[in-house]
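REQUEST FORM: STRUCTURE PREDICTION
Request ID: SP-0412
Submitted by: Lab K.M.
Chain count: 1
Length (residues): 207
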Amino acid sequence: MAVIEVKNTKGEKVSEVEMPDSIFNVEPKKSVLHEVVCMQLAAKRSGTASVRRRSDVKGTGAKPFRQKGTGRARQGDVKSPLLRGGGVIFGPDPRSYTMKVHKKVKRLALKMALSTKLKDEMITVLDAFALDQIKTRSVVSVLETLNLENTLIVVDVKNEELEFSSRNIPGVKVLRVEGLNVYDILKHKNLILLEASIKNIERRLAA
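STATUS: Completed
RESULT:
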């Protein structure tokens, strides 16, 4: 079981914490991570792209000109896809891009993503990240002290001061344990875990 330092917001070591092997020592598989990331990205797609078919276009159903004798190709009505302003033949229709992935696979992928960050020494554990008020500069100062950038911060409970203070910082995101996901872990270079959140992660992934 790996043991890493617990620091405060000044970068000073205050204690140590054990990282359970069942979560932070899982051999990663690219295929599993890829499947879950694709599932997450697909779920973000709105799938609302749509075109008007021949039956959706407003217009008369009468023939625009007689069948024979004009020298032109025959036409049935002005809503034909061959005419300007007519319907569209092969355009998109509203659809769902949702992909189904087994719960066990999603849980396993989350463990693999966390294990990868620990193996690459990209996890920093803090004893707390308390702010007196909503102030972006306070979060920037802490990250500069810890020498971290492009960071995902995982908190155990709702922390409005931290969430609001960090939302305008490029590359920084705050998530609660229940919202922790594979895509955000892999997208961000560094991962900050509050010490209290480790037990919650272990409880969430227990299976």
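NOTES: The CA atoms of residues 152 and 200 lie 17 Å apart.
Reviewed by: T.R.
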